[in-house]
Design goal:
Length: 948
Amino acid sequence: MPGLLRKLVIVAAADGLILHAHGANGTRYNGSNNEASSIQIDYKSKKISAVPTSTFQSLETHNALESWGLVGLLSVASYSFLISITQREQVAQIQGRPVYAVANVAVIPVSSQADALRAITQARNEVSQSDSDAVSEPDEENPDNVTDAAETEIGSVPASPERDRDARHARNTSVSSIAEDVIEKRVRFGRFAANWLSRKNLGLPRPGALSQNPPDSPFDESPALSREDPPAGDVAEAVGKEAVKSELEEQGKGEQSQAMDLLPKLLRYTKLLFSSHNFFFAYDYDLTRSFHAQELSKGQLPMHKAVDLQYFWNHHLVSPFIDSGFHSFALPLLQGFVGQKEFTVAAPKQELSPGSEEQPVAQIIGESQDANNVTTQAPKHNFLLTLVSRRSVNRPGVRYMRRGVDDEGNTANTVETEQILSVPDWDPSHNVYSYLQVRGSIPLYFSQSPYAFKPIPNMHQSAEMNQLAFGRHFREMSRRYGKIQAVSLIDKHGGELKVGEQYQRYTEFLNKNGGIDGVPLNLEWFDFHGECRGMKFENVSRLVDRLKDTLNDFGYTSVKDATIIRKQTGIVRTNCMDCLDRTGVAQCAFGQWALEHQLREEGINLDFGGDSSTQWFNILWADNGDAISKQYSSTGALKGDYTRTRKRDYRGALNDLGLTLTRYYNNIVNDYFSQACIDYLLGNVSEAVFDEFSMALQTTDPGISVQKIRQNAIDTSCKIVISSPSEEFLGGWTMLTPRQPNTLRTLPFEESVLLLTDAAVYNCRFDWETDKVRSFERIDLRSIVHIQYGTYVTSILTDSQSDESRNVGLVIVYRDGDDNALRVNTRTLKTDISPAALEPASQNGEWDLISWLRGRKRATLRFGAFKSLPLDNPRTSPRLGSVPGGVRELDRVRSICSDIERAMLAGDGQNTEASVVEHADIISLADAKKRTGILEHLVYDIKKMVWA
């Protein structure tokens, strides 16, 4: 492959940031097609261009920042920020090639030399402080473990695997209970958790923790998205506040986008995310592909073109460098886990047990054991076990914000895990074994509320949409892996039963219709909590026994002398509700099955379940589970004590309670903004996502087409409410309407369906959770006396909500009579009609807003108010597609009014000169300001302080 940079030197020059690249071992960098080794990012235009190396050499470099690679270029509004890797930790080596975890990043503003210099200086101080801490405060559990943040030999490979036997991932230590950490280690917490501690409650990490911390404490100095003041020297927040301040000086506050208001928090989150030890890279090994599918040796493709885009997490951020032709500056990052452990097996010879029908059981030589105590003359075999988990960028996000499947068949929390068994020196003449597993959410449309400890799943969408997404998901999996064995670990009772039954139902439907290209999909429903009741998690071995034939059929991959001798023909796809805790225990069991069979192929019979010296295997898998759990739920995995020790006691249960409380806090507070940031960093949404977040303090799912959902609601409503076959359907729209009928500003507003036929207008209150019509009101066209459209401002709390051009709506005024009807769906034989809904409008002053109503008898008139939904859609991903724009909200509302008037005139059979449609304000901005009280501002400010 072309030469990839191994080290960057970043200098703030007068016109822009200069990035100078070094090659392997500090040699001169040589990119593809004589690619330049020095490039510049212009402060004004943000253009990336090549500059002569002499330009770099002429600069004063004493304030230069050394970097191990680029995360990318983050652009927000008119600002851009270079994100570079300032610290790394070697966590593994594969075929002699080092694999690193990103330990810290610097966020450098590309706005001016002064801003860039200040950020570079802060980043250098941060690295120096971290290096000094690493020297003065060694790891108590592993004092010989030295971080390579201050490496001098760039890209060096360990001299031998023994030297780095315990150079593990930062998570690769047992997570003790929260109670132990609080009592014994005096963990430093945020103010919120400190208050809990003062009340003698369980101590929690600072909310929003994203990464595992140094081994001395699982929660110490957790990089959390708390609402505390950031520490001095926090580069991300400092440059963000400066950017907002300078922007506000140039323009008025009212002209600012919410992206600028939230910029400091976005930058802080970005820094914490990429510094969380959850991102990995290698300069000359493709971490995104399995061992037997490496493609770097095929031709001279740049690394970013060789990797699997499904696991290329910073693709959007490095695209400016790719588009400018500087391919070797694009360093792909993998989110997930990489862990490695070398172990030695003493295998007794067969003749040492004469007359025995079974092969003698081998023994692991542990670190505290003396090899001389092992069976006499037992040959020793050294092996290396590597675990790589790859988290998909398709349907990314955090726990309750992303569940189930999207329109393209991608599922939430999809992670491919590869277990590689090799010899330490990767001698090609020895077998290398690879075993793949996959976890992922149930491939159906469903959601769960984050406001409950045990939320009940709610199914969504029509059967046709679920069938389509379900089939797409498994066809894509089959294309990647071959045959599929689905394993569901959810309960067969309670709230999980419903989604489990639907999983089984759609599997049967798929198989009845030909399966996956003629191959049936196998589903094993293993009630984990029922089978392992009483904390007997060892009963998961029953699941392995049930699938023994399938596991033997699928096998694993064997590679020798660069030739694939055997290839894995199928994949086990495991899920529970979160695809975290129960899934981690089950995948560890499947990994154990694979490892035992692979060692048996090497002539070694080893029982990992009954041998205490194999504890490291459980710890490695537990660390993997913790990593995936932190990335999806912001805490370590539950049941981690069993995965590590094969034992379960009250201390593990207490630890799980603390983690559960932490998850609950994150679910209802931090995860909303975290999800918006993740979607933005991956390029799935535009800056409009921050406007959406500021209004609702949450965002929509870009992977699910809102247009399809709304069209489905319109179609469903038509089938239910239009009872007369003689009525011709003319149009349908989704609108916002006050929750209380016959009012203009009863909060909160609901999204309803407005239908138009040649005889009536139907206002349908739609249940979006169950895809059913809760109630509808039929308004006969002959009873409509007036239609008014115009500005409809219902809140002034944000700039978007007070924009008169975007907040528009219509009011339909009609005579109350026998031809109109209101029906409520009670799901019984009785159709209820609420008497209160038929009463005239309350004396709340809203009638005064409609001037033409003055002098009329209110008792005979009613009205329905409808507000246009925002037409701006934050979706921008090329994969998901963008919603075409260009249609103004006011034009859309005017068109609806015209359609209703034409239907009225056609029904009367005559033309009248006087139009019933009038363009006038419904609620003007001035009126909205008068009606927005102090309490409403206070409630919003409190919510924003908590959620944003």
